[in-house]
Amino acid sequence: MQRNRLARIGRLWERYWGIGSLMALGLAVTASGAELPPGYWSAGDIEPILERTLIVRLKPDLSGLTEAERMTVDDLLAAGRILHRLYLESVHPQSLEALAELEAKHDELAHSEEASRVTGDLLDLFRVFKGPIATTLDNRRTPFLPVAAEVPGKNVYPADVTREELRAWLEEHPEERDSILDVRSVVRRVTPDKLEADLAALEGHSELALMHPRLGQQLAELAAGLARSDIDAQPTGFYAVPYSVGYADEILEVYDHLRHAAETIRPEDADFAAYLGNRARDLLADDYEAGDASWVRGRFGRLNGQIGSYETYDDELLGVKSFFSANVLLRDEERTDKLAAAIGGLQRLEDSLPYGHHKRVSSDIPVGVYHVIADFGQARGTNTATILPNDADHARKYGRTIMLRYNIMTHPDLFANTKAGWAAAVAPGHADDLTLEGNFNRTLWHEVGHYLGPSATAEGGDLAQALAESSDLIEELKSDLVSLYAAPALAESGYYDAAGLRSVYADGVRRTLQAVKPRRAQPYQTMQLMQMNFFLEHGLLSWSDDGRLTIDYESYHETVAALLAEVLAIQSTGDAERAGRLVDKYAVWDDARHEPLAQRIRAAAKYRYRLVRYAALGE
User: Fold this and answer.
1) Most confident of 282-286, 337-341, 396-400
2) Per-residue pLDDT for 31 more than 70?
């Protein structure tokens, strides 16, 4: 399956750097050569956001790597760069050409200090927001480059499709549900140009035709049916192709890098090599089971990495499509060994959860503490931890792996910013309750929480499909609550002392604090607001006379258990309507209460955004 790498690089270069529609629309510099056309944000638009942006530079010590490990890292970084561009393409159809146009303008305007500073700042914004759409200080999503507005389905569904249209079509064509709702497929309208391009991808890459043996015939039949129909009729219907077909050249290039990395590292780390080789094949087959099994059950040396598409947070249409990400991680061996010794007794915790369909879980969860070498795609940013895979069947058979990102979790500037917002939001007596250790432990047990509780409905149904756009929100809410529900049992076992328990509880409250009113499409922020309102309703939190929060630690466990029971019931039944009612009831922003608190947090916490740079990428 080895390909002509130079030929493929040429195709990628033409795709990413050729003349794009932005140039065709006449969006060029003015005659002065020092101004940007309409659609580009001005310095006045950019400055308020960059003033609130913390630059985080990650530079783990790689001096101890062997030559084989260094070469493996180089291949993984190369694969990550390609997956990052795939992510950009999947979140907005104009991302890549808008970036290329901006970079060209930055070079063109190098002679003008003022103009090149603006284009340089716009490049920083593109990095912060991972695309051409900004989240403003008042939490609106808006373009800062001359591109179309963001749509809920990003660029993995037709731009004009609505949730209602797609669901109605699926009701009429239930035989298409599996492909349309597949976690790793691009949904198209049935049009001649789309079918021609997808058939060409299969015909041009025999390995993809081998991995998807029936797809070519299905597409050919669709094309033939379309040719027989009225050519003037509007296109009707939808079809889907796997990511490997939709992004064939790029996926095959990633395949080459992963295979080469596997061959390089095999003499020193056979398990990691097996994972990389299996994941390379997974990307061609769009079936991650082999890679997931070797990832979770393997015992790796110093290197690890998340490679592929897993999380569905960016899909605001149906909540089922995953988006590409990658990271390269260096294991902190001493901290990992200490943490592994502390994890145990998970079956007792699972059995204690307030729902009736408990599952069997393994206490042998691979947990690692890592230093981030580089992140790409959806993973880029300051995410503190990950637990994967999400596939319920894979998790049942092989378990899940937890990766804690130590050089982010303990970054002093990040924690100082968090602590400032906390101190402004709570009564003075609680200011010192929040500690770095509490954040670390709550984050760890949040990730363990993903492993516990329902992984399917009581009838065996898929949770993501059952709960649709609420599935990510409900899952994250469950995991937050499990991390807090487990705390007293962990204290009884000696895992936490009294101060440690209090700090975990404090971080659970800190998690609910919002600097701006969340949009319903933001699952994390929405479920955090829901927790705050539930805690206020049940007395765990209360408002002091000056508008700050006071915490009743004595009622903590009872309150958390009540909300957790409702969330677990929603997952067990797969009841999307019940989930919607819970969200509607508690995702409420009170301008008289929440907004003044948010203003306090905004005033105290200097930074709202993070721009991460990686020494390994020469940044």
Assistant:
1) 282-286
2) no
E strand or H helix that includes residue 532: helix 523-537
455 burial type by CB count under 10 A (0-12 exposed, 13-18 middle, 19+ buried): buried
How does the average pLDDT of the chain come out, rounded? 92
Peptide bond into 152 cis (omega under 30): no
Position 417 confidence tier, pLDDT thresholds 50, 70, 90: very high
550, pLDDT greater than 80: yes
Give CA–CA dist 17/104, Å, rounded. Answer: 10
Q: pLDDT band at residue 246, thresholds of 50, 70 and 90?
A: very high
Residue 53 β-bridge partners: 609
- The residue among 267, 185, 192, 260 whose CA lies nearest residue 223 is 192
Separation CA 236–CA 595 (nearest Å): 46
Instruction: Please state, in angstroms and rounded to a whole number, the distance separating the CA atoms of residues 316 and 152.
Output: 5
Measuring CA to CA, which residue among 462, 325, 475, 482 is closest to residue 393? 462
Question: Which residue from 57, 60, 56 is spatially nearest to 370, judged by alpha carbons?
Answer: 60
> Position 468: which residue type?
A
Sign of CA dihedral 250, 254, 259, 260: positive
Contact by Cβ (8 Å): 551, 509 = yes
CA 124 to chain centre: 20
CA distance 303 to 69: 8
What are 610's two structure tokens? 């993070």
pLDDT at 33: 45
State yes or no: pLDDT of 251 exceeds 50.
Answer: yes
* Token code pair at residue 510: 């800190």
Helix, coil or strand: residue 261:
helix
Q: Tell if the pTM clears 0.85, that is, is over it.
A: no
What is the DSSP-derived secondary structure letter of residue 426? B
Q: What pLDDT was estimated at residue 7?
A: 43
- Does residue 389 have a cis bond before it (omega within 30 degrees)? yes
Distance (Å, rounded) from C-alpha 133 to C-alpha 129?
A: 7
Strands 609-614 and 53-58: parallel
Cα–chain center distance at 169:
28
Q: Which residue has the higher pLDDT, 17 or 225?
A: 225
**CB 398 within 8 Å of CB 293:** yes
Beta carbons of 94 and 147 less than 8 angstroms apart = yes
The span from the first CA to the last CA of the chain, in angstroms, equals 34
Measured CA to CA, the distance from residue 154 to residue 116 in angstroms comes to 30
pLDDT digits (tens, 9 = 90+) for 481-510: 999 999 999 999 888 999 999 999 999 999
* DSSP string covering 312-345: -TT--SSS----EEEEEEEE-HHHHHHHHHH---
For the chain, state the CA radius of gyration. Answer: 25
The Cα 446–Cα 313 span in angstroms is 17
Integer CA distances (angstroms), 381 to 128, 327, 408, 519, 611, in order: 8, 11, 9, 20, 7
Nearest Cα to Cα of residue 16 among 77, 118, 143, 104: 104
Q: What is the pLDDT of residues 501-546, one digit of tens each?
A: 999 999 999 999 999 999 988 999 999 999 999 999 999 999 999 9
Cα(475)–Cα(463) distance, integer angstroms: 9
CB atoms within 10 A of CB 253: 22
Q: Closest Cα to residue 448, out of 339, 372, 533, 555?
A: 339
SS3 state of residue 189: strand
Q: Is 370 in a helix, a strand, or coil?
A: strand
